[in-house]
Q: What sequence folds into this?
């Protein structure tokens, strides 16, 4: 098998989000308008069953939080997303892209994240209709750097 061909293959949606094999992923805020291809790719890449909703005691590595303008208080949603997140876990805030219905302004995310105890580290195109903003705990990021 050629490794050069593997290196030039387009990155999958889950890979773009840094999802790794064996990670436990919790999905919050999913409704009929989410990107099923992204969820399928995440499940395939992790090899684990996705946890939908907040009715779990399991510690998770990644939270995929689907959020739209008008869904309520973003700070509260982000705080709730931290409930089962492990110490070095990541929250991916998935919002409709600019120009789409229910788009969330980046300034709203920049304001809500620190209030919830999170820092934005990067943004990406998570799916054709969705942007992803990677949020981490500043304390977790510092602890990981010290190792």
A:
């Amino acid at each position: 098998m050629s490794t050069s061909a593997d290196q030039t293959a387009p990155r999958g949606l889950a890979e773009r989000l840094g999802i790794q094999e064996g990670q436990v992923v919790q999905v919050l805020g999913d409704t009929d308008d989410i990107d099923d291809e992204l969820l399928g790719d995440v499940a395939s890449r992790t090899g684990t069953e996705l946890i939908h909703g907040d009715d779990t005691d399991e510690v998770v590595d990644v939270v995929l939080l689907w959020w739209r303008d008008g869904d309520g208080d973003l700070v509260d949603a982000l705080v709730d997303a931290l409930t089962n997140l492990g110490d070095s876990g990541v929250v991916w805030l998935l919002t409709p892209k600019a120009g789409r219905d229910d788009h969330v302004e980046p300034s709203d995310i920049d304001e809500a994240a620190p209030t919830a105890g999170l820092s934005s580290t990067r943004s990406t195109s998570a799916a054709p209709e969705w942007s992803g903003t990677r949020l981490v705990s500043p304390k977790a990021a510092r602890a990981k750097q010290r190792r």
User: Anything to note?
Assistant: The CA atoms of residues 29 and 72 lie 11 Å apart. Helices lie at 3-8, 13-16, 36-46, 74-81, 106-115, 138-146. The chain has one domain: 12-146.
